[in-house]
Design a protein that fits this description.
The structure is a homotetramer.
Chain A lengths: L1 H18 L4 H37 L1 H20 L1
Helix pairs in contact in A: 1-2, 2-3
């Protein structure tokens, strides 16, 4: 949650930079920083998801195991490709 | 500017999802959407930068040309790698 | 294995394009195709790894479970960031 | 050209790793290395393209300038998104 609030602050910072006509390249450097912060947040969420939901489903076995593994795999593919 | 305001709204939406204990995978889908929105914003800024600052510097030639091309190239590398 | 052989063929195709002085933009389009093929290969490997090694370790529990989850998480982070 | 030959060697190395049943995670680490090598090659090509073709078209002006800027921008978008 703290991370997302910080990211929201970074996006507001971007708006300020644009409003103040900051040099494009400096805005782009900031955009890359926000993108990396979002990725870190996503990777942390994914870790927790694998250590809890996916682990539980794997222990349970059966159809739920398949479903959760497929779901995690699709989410990872979206992160890798975005 | 409108784009950044929309992205800020998306990040606030993410906080709401987390606060409401939304299923991790659905949060992650949203994070991928925000990342893509940030990338589109960055690509649009880069386009404008190349069509204005870089073009002007190229027309001017000399040291300024070298400096602007190098700067743009570094910004592109940061975007590709983030 | 077939996938990797096809990727090797694509990389050789890139060398041919460069040797024949193909227009840069067309070479770059091909490079993006090879990068996507490599990503698909990595995602498929990761899927199999999670459905076998990680699942087994999770079922086993204890230290091995922690180690395998951490390892998978680090591999995902490398894929997302590369 | 040397870079692409090295990348071809890396892809053959990947096939060897898979054939020898190397641990998935170690294969994935190698895949990330090849992806980064391809990205570096693409970024270098793009640099040269901007310093030559795009620069020339910008100096020339007119329709050719528009076309080359648009083409470069599309290629950058493909790299950022792949």
């Amino acid at each position: 949650m703290m991370r997302l609030r910080r990211i929201e602050g970074q996006v507001r910072g971007l708006q300020r930079l644009v409003a103040e006509d900051t040099y494009c390249i400096d805005v782009l450097t900031q955009v890359s920083a926000v993108t990396r912060a979002l990725q870190s947040f996503a990777l942390q969420m994914l870790d927790e998801h694998m250590a809890t939901c996916v682990s539980d489903a794997v222990a349970e076995g059966g159809e739920e195991r398949e479903r959760k593994l497929k779901e995690a795999s699709d989410a990872i593919a979206r992160l890798v490709r975005s």
